[in-house]
């Protein structure tokens, strides 16, 4: 329904003035004796008077107010939990739900069906499949809330067993509609044995022992025993026997194992099925562990024994991926030999020194390759040689001249994600001993910490790094870092700020750069069954600019050796490729393309997990469904009471809602007025011309 009215911004009496103005104009124009008939003269006068009156009226700038009222019928959403836990009882209710939908639609209500995996289910209800591997009832209800925001959604009929294994509990939400829950499933605990949880390291090292722990829950099997097995590639590695002494029992089983194969290894934990179990699907769990061949090797060369060495070693060994060798000249004879072992990072503590102790050994380490180097300066450092060997900073100083400084974080440093508030504690730390002199940053270097001399805040750098050169370098211009760790612990009972700072700097300069011109990699290392696996593609030219248009061949190989090939084109703005339908397990991938008439390839792996969340709980939660219905003003019924719910909804049918929208605009903006004025002027002018007058 549309209502319109004209609103005047001036007194309505001005309308009479407009009419009078039009009449006067027409009278004086057509008052002389006409050359045509009196009737025609009167008609032309009326046309001219109307034209002038309308123009004068529009100059008053009247407004046009339009009010449109729409009828919004009540809407009902039938929300169905189509997860695997509903597979037994859910399909039995679909015919009754179809009848409910038809009855509500016949009464003039708009009815939609929504499931866990789609906004609106358009097919016939009896064809609905209960195959979702997870249940998020909160998302299901919030989707209905979002999809019908601002509309007259009055009721949601929720069919579920109340088992929600993802997201928040639906009772924590607030909803602007009534929720009528239909409970299905059995609320009585089942006789069952299940693996509730598995604990294992994501990463282990080749040849090392590592634990795999399983939490096993049994219900209704007191006095019985079961066998728990750890398997890999179909072969049993180890077994343990457990006995259940109570009706509701919990057992924890730990296996110690190792691997001689690199890469992600797939292990399985299985509990022997017992007679009378409700389901055996939860007797099996998969475990994936990434077996790494070796650690990052770090060499710390020191001029002499020093508390800093112990402190830095402790910081490094917090990361299990680091293997640290410490060599001290004059103390460790191995320090004076040059081993064949290669390192990923070299830390030089007060080396090179003023007396060139071990200078030839240091030089040989640095000449072998472009291994990143972290220089820690002190009172014995030869700043001239350090300046020649690092790419971060040049220090000009006189031998033996030192200064005592504390550290101040540079807030403009953004290369690492560091907490400026946490690092403000460094200004309270005991001073470090640094060479006194002039510090000049080299091109591409960045300052992490500045030097504070007492209360004087200087712009001299204390901690500097350069990651852009052939050799990555970092320089800490002072000794005494061990005092910082002790003081931080005294102030905060923790050792976080100093340790995190050095850990991140060391990780940044020791990480290996990827210089490949062709890269294909999954956006995540792990996916769940049913998820889309997304690959990112990057192709570069000789100066490392991204290029596009290459044809990519991607091969996915599962654990059984089955190869699935795919082909796609790397396009600008569309460099990702998605695939779905992969089964659980470790999947290897190989991508190839032609670049400069040369075949480039890249390989890798990812994991597809079957979390089996739907099998972990098999007892329906009617208590939650009752609470959800009660707090929203709805009804709770069981699956065999859907007819009663239909009668309730029809009896308590919501009324239509009237939505009105008001629009206020200037009358002159209506295009039809222009054409009306053009018509009046054209008709008058055409008639006068036809009669031989202008």
TrEMBL record:
Keywords: Membrane, Transmembrane, Transmembrane helix. It comes from the Bacteria. InterPro entries: Class_I_gatase-like (IPR029062), vWFA_dom_sf (IPR036465). The keyword Transmembrane applies. The chain crosses the membrane at residues 12-30, 42-64. PANTHER family: BLL2462 PROTEIN. This is VWA domain-containing protein.
